[in-house]
Specification:
The chain is α/β, with parallel strands linked by helices. The protein contains 19 helices and 23 strands. The strands form five sheets. It has a nine-stranded mixed β-sheet, sandwiched between helices. A hairpin with a 6-residue loop joins strand 21 and strand 22. The longest helix has 19 residues. The radius of gyration is 25 Å and the shape is globular. It starts with 7 loop residues before the first strand and ends with a helix. It binds glutamine. The site of glutamine has 11 residues, from helix 15 and strand 19.
Length: 552
Amino acid sequence: MSKKSNCKYIFVVGGVISGVGKGITASSLGLILKNRGLEVTAIKIDPYINIDAGTMNPTEHGEVFVLDDGDETDQDMGNYERFLDINLTRVNYMTTGRVYSRVIEKERNLEYKGKCVEVVPHIPLEVIHRIKEAGKKANADVVIIEIGGTVGEYQNMLFLEAARMMKIEFPKDVIFVMVSYLPTPSKIGEMKTKPTQNAVRTLNASGVQPDFLIARGGTMLDQKRKEKISMFCNILPDRVISAPDVDSIYDIPLNFEKEKLSDKLCGILGTFCKKPDDGVWSKWKNFAKHAHNSKEVVNIGMIGKYFETGDYILSDSYLSVIEAIKYSAYMQNRKAKITWLNATDFENDPSKLKELKKFDGIIVPGGFGSRGIEGIISSIKFVRENKIPYFGLCYGMQLLVIEYARNVLGLKDANTREVNPNSKNLVIDVMESQKELLKNNLYGGSMRLGEYKAILRDNTIARKAYDKKEILERHRHRYEVNPAFVKDLEVKGLVFSGYSPDGHLMEIAELPKNKHPFFLGTQFHPEFLARPLSPHPLFTAFIKSCINNKKK
Ligand code: GLN
């Protein structure tokens, strides 16, 4: 095999405002380069002190995305995995907290050999070390590094400093892409470039000059504004790329290639690129087309509690679940319409339960704590009795078991220790090992996290959907089905169709098909493994039963 050329590094930074698609841009850049035969990996840098995203409320920070190795990360990691169809590990994720604690640990170990350890350069040097390691681990030709936040924030300065230092070390191998926003104020009716000009100047003040500008906005950037940005931001006009709002994020790589972006990137980086790989590309195009052409709707109700932020609805908390639903729906030529149902509404007004009949299927995603729980349990009872397809993810599985224990086994006070530790029938409880952790307040990174194996029982919905005997799925939970109740639940008809290899932990609960078209919950989070080109088998089985439910 010929020797690989130097690894290339593409930094993606945000200008003007956050939330305009930096993560999707980074993912799309990765995909168009992968499509040119390059080995690509991606890193997300989150500039907060938290060691990981696991201790944050999803309404603060969006979904916590879990990796195979159990790292609790930012939702953008999910975008990278989905677009690039790769599995990332903790080397691909960095926070300020993580970098500082490593530097402090090294200082305590005398690894700085008596030097005064300073914020600059030691923090950026640690950042650079981590970026290089991630590249090496993936044997990557290109590492895409997304720096969280926007330029000018105090928080990400040390990461920009690391990027600047890398450019000095590898002048030919590092490029910068700024994703900026161009507002069109309604009363002015014209797209304004000034905030972007200022953002580029702010970045310049950190010693960084963007090579490309991705111009996000409501509409296409016209020639005049392209020239203005080029002139005032010091970027060649053909490197100012228009990125207007789109209906489907999966069009973005295709739009980038309309502007020949992979050619331009490879041109500057001096990378040898193959012709576009027809295999990956045509599959992606086909998938993106489905997102537009699937017209018939499948109506999914999602009962959750991490939607509201102030007066706004934030669906980001369940991003992977939403994408997983979409992939399986597109595969059936359907468009998924997802309606957010607030769990507490069903508690305040039980007559609302009837409204669940409007949906082809109901999902209860993961969650924590007691708020809204009784509303969810009543909803599960309703969909079980009315044979509406139900898919419970993690907490959604635990609550399914509680509902069954209460209403079929007659254990009226059945509960989880998380909600009511005084219940006599803790059908969901903690493992012994967790009790010690909780006693000592050791919450961070201490749940059952990441990939674990499960064995599937023959002749079940799960076994049929996966079409294999053993599976690996990602977990994020502290509580478990209490083994003391498993026999009784089984006698009353609940089937544990997936369990840990030692038989102690229940991984999937379901009702047989002759009792209910689809009533299934997983202790793991299948949504983390759903990919555009390979939808998750359980989501597909659920969507199929929703479609059948609709036909009736
Ligand atoms: N709160 C539950 C537990 O900790 C479920 C977690 C989840 O849904 N991710 O076990």
